[in-house]
TrEMBL record:
This is Acyl-CoA dehydrogenase. Residues 22-256 form the Aminoglycoside phosphotransferase domain. Gene3D superfamilies: 3.90.1200.10, Phosphorylase Kinase, domain 1. Coiled coil: none annotated. CDD domains: ACAD10_11_N-like.
């Protein structure tokens, strides 16, 4: 792979030798590698490679690159794209190469390093970054609209298994759907764990593979489900950083638009239900024998947790 990487990089940064190539922990759908590209003059570029097989769920590498460039132009902190290709010929799979940004992604480490002021600062930066993403121009790069409610309804149906809570929730949500808002660029997985945080706060947004055209409420709600608090109390419902109300207010200030709290609750219910279906899907991978894994089985046990959260939201519990 080192020689192949050097060939890929030659047209964009010149002749280099690849050093310190190592696989990183990270996403389930794609593999991430860190490496150094060293020029003949001794210059050193610290880079990241993302690679993985194409599928029908995730954005292609060239689309990911184009979206990140649009988001950067709108003011969102993202890695600088070096090159990307959907063609598997060079590295065996499609790939994206970007610069390496120092910082931390592991949420519990981030939480331990933050005091109250640091959490509030990071929360505001997350709101400001989402506002920038939602301002980005999504036209002309191949983005498709996606409907979260029907998509996850279909995913659950494909498994041939459901729960009474999930069925009631899907039907209630379909019957009580609020009017659609203006379509925007949506990250699709904006949450703690997909952000690089350094001493100054939010350094970069990662993992754009679920990007699509949708509503701003999708990203706002996904950031606020219980799973992405990583054990923080409900008072820190927005990513374990602060209250949901303070997060939404910061977004309103940054975006210059109002966030309807009732519409947000509907989308928070959708997001929680989405996580429940994901948990059931991960359990099915283990139960079917496709991927025997204690970790996947444990994630499956969280289905009941999401059922509780969905019922609480449908019955008017606090957010």
């Amino acid at each position: 792979m080192k020689d192949a990487l050097a060939e890929v990089l030659r047209p964009v940064i010149g002749d280099v030798t690849v050093e310190n190539l190592s696989a990183l922990t990270g996403g389930a759908s794609r593999t991430t590698w860190a490496f150094d590209a060293v020029g003949s003059d001794g210059s050193r570029h610290e880079l990241i490679l993302r690679t993985g097989p194409p599928d029908d769920v995730h954005a292609g590498m060239e689309l990911e690159a184009a979206v990140q460039q649009r988001a950067a132009a709108a003011g969102a902190p993202v890695p600088h794209i070096i090159t990307a290709s959907n063609c598997p010929a060079a590295l065996g799979n499609p790939y994206l190469i970007c610069n390496r940004i120092p910082g931390e992604t592991i949420v519990r480490r981030i939480a331990r390093a933050l005091d109250d002021d640091g959490r509030q600062r990071l929360l505001r930066q997350c709101a400001q970054t989402l506002a920038a993403i939602h301002r980005a121009d999504p036209s002309g790069i191949g983005l498709a609209p996606a409907d979260q409610l029907s998509e996850w309804r279909d995913r659950l149906d494909e498994m041939g298994d459901t729960t009474a809570t999930f069925e009631w929730a899907f039907r209630w949500l379909a019957a009580n759907r609020p009017p659609a808002t203006a379509p925007r660029l949506v990250h699709g997985d904006f949450r703690m764990g997909n952000l690089i945080v350094d001493d100054t706060g939010l350094a970069a947004v990662l993992d754009w593979e679920l990007v699509h055209i949708g509503e701003i409420y999708e990203d706002l709600a996904w950031f606020c489900i219980r799973a992405w608090r990583f054990g923080a109390p409900v008072a820190l419902g927005a990513g374990g950083l602060g209250s949901i109300e303070s997060f939404l207010s910061a977004y309103e200030e940054a975006a210059g638009t109002a966030v309807d709290r009732d519409v947000f609750r509907w989308w928070l219910t959708v997001a929680t239900l989405r996580w429940g279906v994901i948990c059931r899907f991960q359990a099915e991978r283990h139960l079917s024998g496709q991927t025997p894994s204690v970790e996947l089985a444990a994630i499956g046990r969280r289905v009941s947790e999401t059922e509780w959260d969905v019922l609480d939201l449908l019955e008017g519990g606090p957010i």
